[in-house]
């Protein structure tokens, strides 16, 4: 059965006119045969004829967030984190589709993402040097001062209460700057880079490591490795609350769809331990 047409998966809807406009605005020719499409958030990326990378994204005007919409260029201020270099961007309104498009040109990543999606189904067996680079990058990022917001206290508390009730105090004691979407699709290997900087900002301490842990739950040895590598933040109260919120997200998805994934049972088991430790 073919996929249901949706703007959240641009491969399912005609968009040649959008790519032509992106080429006009960047002055680059997109290698359409080697484009990378997300199936979930309406983004796409293409190598260009000049060796750069062009990223395409859209948003409904009523849902535009100034923080998320300017995250890529705002990340220039961050030091000590290896990532693609942003060159230029452009935006335009598409009345026919009722969306605002954004196109950004940047340098190409020097290696492929670990996974084409945020999760993995096997252990990528990354070397100690890779984990050390990731740790250094997240530490540098956490030390950056910003007014941007990635995760709000109200959001975290509501997600946890929705699934697990109000038995625990969900007040986050420590906050720091975070990338906000550290999954296996946003880290490269064997050369480390951190990709996709739309939503970075303040979050609970340990949130980035918690995101990677959550994305690893279907591979127990990998999830354990994340816990070991980032025990200094994941074993704090803020880190535990971050993990519990991410477990709640997995359970919410399970309840909505009625389908179990390889992450459902591990998240349920982890939540039981986290609730006990946070009581």
Question: Secondary-structure map with pairings?
Answer:
Blueprint: H1 16-26, E1 36-37, E2 44-47, E3 52-59, H2 66-69, H3 71-74, E4 86-94, E5 99-107, H4 128-142, H5 153-164, E6 175-178, E7 201-204, H6 207-215, H7 220-229, H8 231-234, H9 237-257, H10 264-278
Antiparallel strand pairs: 1-2, 2-3, 3-5, 4-5, 6-7
Notes on the structure:
By secondary structure, the chain is of the alpha+beta class. It is 38% helix and 14% strand. The chain is built from ten helices and seven strands. The strands form two sheets. The chain has a five-stranded antiparallel sheet, covered by helices on one side. Strand 2 and strand 3 form a beta hairpin. Helix 5 crosses helix 9, helix 6 packs across helix 9 and helix 9 runs antiparallel to helix 10. The longest helix is centred in the last third of the chain and has 21 residues. It starts with 15 loop residues before the first helix and ends with a helix. The model has no long low-confidence stretch (mean pLDDT 95).
Question: Keywords, please?
Answer:
38% helix, two-stranded antiparallel ribbon, 10 helices, 7 strands, 279 residues, globular
Short description:
With 279 residues, the protein is α+β, with helices and mostly antiparallel strands. Helix content is 38%, strand content 14%. The protein has helices at 16-26, 66-69, 71-74, 128-142, 153-164, 207-215, 220-229, 231-234, 237-257, 264-278; strands spanning 36-37, 44-47, 52-59, 86-94, 99-107, 175-178, 201-204.
């Amino acid at each position: 059965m073919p996929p249901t047409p949706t703007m959240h998966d641009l491969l399912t809807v005609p968009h040649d006119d959008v790519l032509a406009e992106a080429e006009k605005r960047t002055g680059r020719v997109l290698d359409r045969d080697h484009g990378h499409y997300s199936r979930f958030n309406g983004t796409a990326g293409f190598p260009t004829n000049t060796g750069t990378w062009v990223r395409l994204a859209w948003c409904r005007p009523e849902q535009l967030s100034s923080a998320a919409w300017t995250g890529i260029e705002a990340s220039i201020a961050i030091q000590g984190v290896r990532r693609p270099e942003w060159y230029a961007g452009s935006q335009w309104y598409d009345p026919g589709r009722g969306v605002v498009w954004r196109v950004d040109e940047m340098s190409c990543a020097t290696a492929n993402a670990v996974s084409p999606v945020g999760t993995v189904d096997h252990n990528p067996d990354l070397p100690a040097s890779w984990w050390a680079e990731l740790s250094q990058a997240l530490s540098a990022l956490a030390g950056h001062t910003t007014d941007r917001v990635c995760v709000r206290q109200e959001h975290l508390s509501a997600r946890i209460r929705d699934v697990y009730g109000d038995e625990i105090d969900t007040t986050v004691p420590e906050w720091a700057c975070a990338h906000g979407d550290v999954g296996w699709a946003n880290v490269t290997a064997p050369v480390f880079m951190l990709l996709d900087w739309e939503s970075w900002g303040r979050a609970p301490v340990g949130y980035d490591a918690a995101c990677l842990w959550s994305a690893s739950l279907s591979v127990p040895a990998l999830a354990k490795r994340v816990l070991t590598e980032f025990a200094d933040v994941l074993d704090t109260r803020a880190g535990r609350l971050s993990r519990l919120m991410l477990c709640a997200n997995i359970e919410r998805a399970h309840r909505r769809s009625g389908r179990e994934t390889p992450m459902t049972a591990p998240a349920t088991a982890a939540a039981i331990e986290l609730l006990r430790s946070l009581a």
